[in-house]
Structure formats: C-alpha cells, structure tokens
C-alpha cells in the first residue's frame, strides 16, 4: 500500500481557501471553514505554516491540498512530520530542527474516518519556553471535524454523480436494446445522447475499409452521405480512430498533443462549436465512432466525457452485434467462410494452420488404420439353473441358518421347522404300538389265532404311521440340494412365522455353472448374432476380463433406462470361483475390423440416417 505524502512532488500548491474548497469541498462555506480554523491556528499557536495534505482513501499518495499563509513553503521538517504521521497513523511531534535560522517543531495529526486514512493536518511553529505540545495537538484536532464534513460532502457528491452516470447509461442502453433492428437502435441511441447531453447534433459512423461512413444522424430520418458537412463529420471520425483516442474541442491541457485538423475544419465551416468524437470498439477492434456537437459556449465537461466514455464502451459492442445479426443469411454464411479462409490462409494464426494440418494428417492416418469394432451392452451374471427349496409341510419356522449370499454345501441345513407336534405324535404312536404288542403277546399265549392276526395287522399299521411321522420329522430340516450359493430367502427375521406347504423359502444356484444375460440396444440388434465372441468386465471385479460367446437372441424387447433393449444369452468361456449370481458389468461383443473414423462415427451416422429419413418428403 502506497501511503507516501509526495508533498515535494505536487508542483505548485493549490493556493488559498477557495482553491482548497474546490479540492475537498464544493461549497464556499467549507472553504471559509479552512480559512477560519487555519487562521485560528496561526493566531492562537503562533504557527508559521499550516498545511493540509489529502489523497485517495487509505492508498495515497497524499498531496498538498492547501496551506496558510498562501505564499509559504513547507520545509523539510514539516514534510518529514507529515510522512511520519502517514506511516504511523497517529499524532506525531517532530521538534528541535532548524528552519530558516529558527528552531522549530512540527505537529502532524492524521485525518481518520472509520479507520481509513484520508490525509494529514500539520503545523509548524517556533519552539518557545512555554510551548505546551499537548495543547497544540488538541487545538489541531479541534479543526478535524470541519475537514471531515468536507470529505463527507465530497464523497456524497461523487456517489451521486456516479449513480447519475450509471442511471443514464442503463436507461440509454435499455432503450437501445429494446429495438430489434440495428438501424432503429442506432438512431434511438444517438438521439438519446443528443437529448441527454443537450447537443445540437450527434452522428454515428461505421468504420469500413479504413474509412468512416456516417450511417445515422440524430433527429434526422434521412441525409445525403455525400454532402460536404457529412463528409467533414466522417473526417472527424477518421481523425479520432486513427489516433485511437477521444478528441474534445475546445482542447484542454491534456489534449495538447492530439491532432485536430479535421475538427478545426468542422468548426470553421459554421458557428463556433464544441465537439467530442469517441471511437467505438468491439473485442478490441474499432467498429466506428460517435461525434457530438453543441454550441461553443457549452464545452463538454469532464463528467460528461466520463459518461460518454462509459456508455460508448458498452454501446459499441451492442450496436455492432445488432448490425451483424441484421445481415441476411447468405451474407452471414459468406462472412463466416471468409473469416475461416483468412484464418487459414492469412499471415497470422500459425498455430491454427499447424493444428489444421495435423488434423488432416491425423484424419488420413485414421482412415488407413483399422481397429476392432465392438457393440456395448449391459451384462448380468445369473446361475445356469436355479433350484427352489420349498416348505415340505405346514408349520412354523424354528430356526434359519442361511441368508442370501451364503455359500452352502450339499446337505447343509438351511432352516428347520417346529417339530414339537410331530414328536408328540410319534410318542403317542409308540405308546399305541407298545399296547398292540402286548395284545399280540397275550393272544399268542392264549393261542387265539384270530386275535393274533388282528394284533399283528394293528402293529404293522402303527409302525407305518410312525415311519410316516419320522419321515415328516426329517423333512422339517430343509437342506441344500447341491453345492451352491443362496440367491434369496432370509428367514432369520421370520422365526416363529407360519409357513404353508409348497411355500418357496430359498432359491439356490450352483457355484460352477453361470451364464450372462446381455441387454443389447435395439440400434445394435442387427449386429448381434449367435456365436460372436467378446469380453465382459464386472463392476465387482474391474481388474479382470472374462471371455464370452453369444448364444440365443430373443425377439422380445424390454425397456431399461428409457431404451428399448433385447436379451441376448451368452456363455462364459472360462470358469472362476469369484463369480456370483447378480453381478453386473459391461460386455463388449466383437463384430469385425473397421477404420477408426467409421467406428467413432457409427452412432452419429445412424442418427443422421434416421433424422434424414424422418424429415425427407
């Protein structure tokens, strides 16, 4: 942050109170405030010099804005005090230095608002025996409110001017943007300029082939482009565009090096006039210029120049964009082709030319290079067979040992049903059999042949019932029919729940027999035939590739993610223990060898054919 005072670099100081008021206030009353308190400090403190340094908020450099007496020159000691005050942002006392043969002291007090430094008030006074430096600092601080009020008034005025300029720019641009055609928008813009700035005439010109041509005049529906006046206005535009700067007549000190011959001729051709010419640009290229004219007694002020510069900075691209959009379609196409030809064949953009040559070479090489053409399809692993384990009888779930994803061996218990009722029934029939056995033994002891036959039959019947119950008891333990993986069935959350005979409880698939189900997009169905080879990568095993061979292609379509797909069965050409039913991935079916561009544009060409077929009459 540059906070230098630069008091020695300011050149001629501002001067008296009226000049000071112009620097940090617009009011004569505030200038009078400077005169009042600077005079007070001189009279009360016996100050030799009182100075006021002001600068941009917090950034500097801070320059000499006012001094009292008007013909005084700040010495090195006073300047050093100002520099030290700016650096430390607190009151500074520098004493004991010699100034014009006298011992002096300098006191600097910073002007702070909301923690930001705006400047410094400093006084130089001779050293006396009764000098109370604390009292001097307080007297200087007493003057700060008047200066702060002046700074606040200046900020308010600058803010109001900025808002006014922004509002005028927005209104003018809004009126211009409302017009769809370039000619109407241009006429609206310059007429609005003319009315807002109190101009007699405003002209808009377009730059073409290093010459300007007037295309619109304010408050004028038609004019002769070949008239002497219009030609002189065009010359003013060329003069400003060729120098790349704004030209204002009459000139001020900053414009003394600008060539203004064409503007002088326009002034001499009629009554004395004030003229301002502003070039218009779009993307850094000059597209035209605006010439504003009014009576010579009303020269263009600095704030008007700032307004015009701000508005034309946006107006130029807007008008040029509207002009380009208003061109006929053949002209737009021709212009685009011309820009492309210039870019390729012109002396510039060597990088673009090299890129085009490389692209052509790459295209030729690609057409002579073939690669394997694949069609891509979503793939899903399924067991080649699926075995269902169903409930053998009505009952209740007693326990569950398997959940989906478990690998089970043949004969492993998956779940059991509650067998208490069956065991009680078996115990009852065992009691009946014992009773029948005793009856049989009694009949045998009595040699009662009829009773012996009846008892033997009853015993056989009882044993058959017991065998049936034991078989049912064994079936309450549901076992895996083969080595495999459980696909579905989670009875761990259903212990105690009733099940009915035939109800599906588990599904099991073998571990060594899988197939792939491919979902082929309908656009590639004609290419997918039986017996094609390919590869598949599964999401769960992204680092491994498995070979496959396509099988049957079904003729029934399905919908997946908004696309019509057909199912194609495929067999894996290699076995692995890592596969599990339900895994998904991406399969690529090998079709043939084709040129690389043909592979890249396969989908685009198919889309273009369908679109063309849809829209041809």
UniProtKB/TrEMBL annotation:
The answer to keyword Transmembrane helix applying to this record is no
The GAF domain is annotated at: 181-329
Q: Does the keyword Coiled coil apply?
A: yes
Where's it found, cell-wise?
Answer: Cell envelope
Question: What InterPro entries does the record tag this protein with?
Answer: BSH_CzcB-like, GAF, GAF-like_dom_sf, UPF0194_transport
One Pfam family name is: GAF
An annotated GO cellular component of this protein is: cell envelope
List keywords of the entry alphabetically.
Coiled coil
The name this protein carries in UniProt is: GAF domain-containing protein
């Amino acid at each position: 942050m540059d906070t230098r005072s630069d008091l020695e670099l300011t050149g001629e100081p501002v001067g008296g109170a009226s000049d000071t008021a112009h620097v940090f206030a617009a009011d004569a009353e505030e200038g009078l405030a400077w005169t009042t308190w600077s005079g007070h400090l001189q009279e009360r403190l016996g100050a030799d010099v009182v100075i006021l340094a002001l600068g941009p908020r917090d950034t500097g450099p801070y320059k000499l804005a006012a001094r009292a007496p008007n013909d005084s020159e700040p010495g090195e000691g006073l300047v050093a005090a100002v520099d030290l005050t700016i650096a430390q942002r607190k009151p500074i006392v520098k004493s004991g230095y010699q100034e014009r043969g006298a011992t002096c002291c300098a006191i600097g007090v910073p002007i702070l608002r909301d923690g930001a430094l705006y400047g410094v008030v400093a006084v130089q006074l001779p050293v006396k025996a009764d000098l109370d430096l604390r009292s001097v600092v307080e007297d200087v601080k007493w003057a700060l409110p008047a200066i702060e009020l002046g700074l606040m008034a200046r900020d308010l005025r600058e803010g109001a001017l900025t808002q006014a300029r922004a509002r005028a720019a927005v209104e003018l641009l809004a009126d211009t943007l409302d017009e769809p055609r370039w000619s109407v928008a241009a006429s609206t813009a310059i007429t609005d300029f003319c009315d807002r700035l109190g101009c007699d005439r405003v002209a808009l010109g377009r730059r073409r082939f290093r010459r300007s041509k007037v295309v619109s005049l304010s408050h004028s529906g038609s004019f002769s482009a070949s008239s002497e006046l219009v030609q002189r206005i065009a010359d003013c535009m060329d003069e400003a565009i060729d120098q790349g700067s704004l030209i204002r007549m009459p000139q001020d000190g900053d414009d003394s090096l600008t060539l203004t011959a064409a503007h002088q001729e326009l002034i001499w051709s009629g009554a004395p006039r004030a003229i301002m010419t502003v070039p218009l640009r779009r993307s850094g290229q000059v597209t035209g210029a605006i010439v504003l004219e009014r009576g010579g007694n009303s020269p263009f002020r600095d704030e008007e120049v700032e307004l015009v510069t701000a508005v034309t900075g946006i107006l130029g691209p807007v008008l040029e964009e509207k002009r380009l959009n208003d061109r006929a379609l053949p002209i737009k196409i021709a212009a685009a082709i011309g820009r492309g030809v210039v870019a390729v064949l012109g002396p510039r953009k060597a990088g673009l030319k090299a890129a085009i040559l490389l692209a052509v070479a790459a295209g030729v090489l690609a057409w002579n290079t073939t690669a394997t053409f694949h069609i891509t399809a979503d793939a899903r692993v399924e067991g080649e067979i699926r075995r269902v384990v169903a409930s053998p009888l009505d009952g209740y779930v007693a326990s569950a040992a398997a959940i989906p994803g478990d690998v089970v061996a043949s004969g492993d218990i998956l779940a059991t049903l509650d067998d208490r009722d069956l065991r009680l029934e078996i115990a009852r029939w065992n009691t009946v059999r014992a009773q029948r056995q005793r009856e049989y033994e009694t009949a045998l002891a009595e040699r009662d042949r009829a009773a012996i036959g009846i008892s033997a039959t009853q015993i056989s019947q009882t044993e058959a019932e017991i065998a049936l119950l034991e078989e049912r008891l064994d079936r309450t333990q549901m076992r895996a029919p083969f080595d495999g993986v459980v696909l579905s069935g989670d009875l761990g959350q259903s212990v105690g729940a009733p099940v009915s005979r035939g109800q599906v409880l588990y599904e099991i698939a073998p571990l060594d027999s899988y197939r792939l189900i491919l979902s082929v997009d309908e656009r590639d169905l004609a290419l997918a035939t039986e017996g094609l080879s390919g590869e598949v990568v599964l999401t769960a095993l992204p680092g491994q590739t498995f070979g496959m061979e396509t099988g049957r292609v079904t003729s029934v379509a399905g919908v997946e993610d908004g696309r019509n797909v057909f199912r194609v069965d495929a067999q894996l050409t290699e076995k692995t223990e890592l596969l599990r039913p339900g895994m998904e991935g991406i399969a690529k079916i090998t079709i043939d060898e084709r040129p690389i561009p043909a592979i890249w544009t396969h989908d685009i060409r198919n889309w273009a054919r369908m679109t063309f077929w849809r829209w041809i009459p």
